Amino acid sequence: MRGSLTDWNRLAVIGGIDFEHPEAVRALDAIAEDTARRTGVPLSLATLVLNSAQLVAGASRAVRECVPVDGTPNEWSLCARIVISGEPFVVTDAAADPRTADSPAVTMAGLGSYAGVPVVLHGATVGAHCLVATAPQVFTDGQLAVLHRGAAEIAVVFRRHAAA
Amino acid sequence: MAGVAGLDEPTEASVIAELAGTVGAENAEMLWVIVCRRLKVSRPVTDPQHLIKATETLMELGDVLRVSGRSAKVRLITYRALEAALPG
Known about the structure:
Chain A: It comes from Actinoplanes utahensis. Chain A: InterPro entries: GAF, GAF-like_dom_sf. Chain A: This is GAF domain-containing protein. The complex is a heterodimer of chains A (164) and B (88). With 164 residues, chain A is α+β, with helices and mostly antiparallel strands. Chain A has helices spanning 8-15, 22-39, 61-66, 79-85, 104-107, 141-160; strands spanning 43-49, 53-59, 71-73, 89-91, 113-121, 124-133. Chain A has a single domain, classed as Beta-Lactamase. Chain A has a six-stranded antiparallel sheet with strand order 3-2-1-6-5-4, with helices on both faces. In chain A, a hairpin with a 3-residue loop joins strand 1 (43-49) and strand 2. In chain A, helix 2 packs antiparallel against helix 6. The longest helix of chain A has 20 residues, at 141-160. Chain B has one domain. The chains are: A alpha+beta (164), B mainly alpha (88).
């Protein structure tokens, strides 16, 4: 489902989630780590796309060890594109792909490839579950299936930590 | 407005503008006044630490404001991290 980054209902759904609760963060980190292990791609994230920035709600160990900040502005966020379109977004060679070549995520942060799928809660696309690599990479159907399964698990964690 | 890595420096005005995108201009202005009173800081808020504190205070005011405040805080922290990491 397509969405606007500033849609009130979408932000209200996110606002109802206790997304910084330590138990939620631990569970989301575990899902991202599991995705990284199953796909063989070390950098995996569970993101919440807020109105102007993406928050890393959960991440694999490799991300936690090497990324010093807990989010990025939405201008840098490929997950934000997923929220807008409501569809998975896959880029095999980010520097060569006209959709991403100019993105600071590519030119500044060195992103080489990306695969992400929507995380949907109460009918709203609240964020994404993604894999990031520093080199160009083709993502297989099997890896995308792991992402979809992880996204469903992330939605369960958000639901568990959401206001009734 | 000074920028780093294509990112404009977050200011009081930009934080209020982002907030206005969620709650409307009038409410955003009113909320910012409340936040500044709580923090006992005078406007315009220019100190980056005060701006971060303001976003944290905003987060305490309600669910959607928690989202807007957290979002603004990510932008402030990212900008400061880039500023510290990049030459010039």
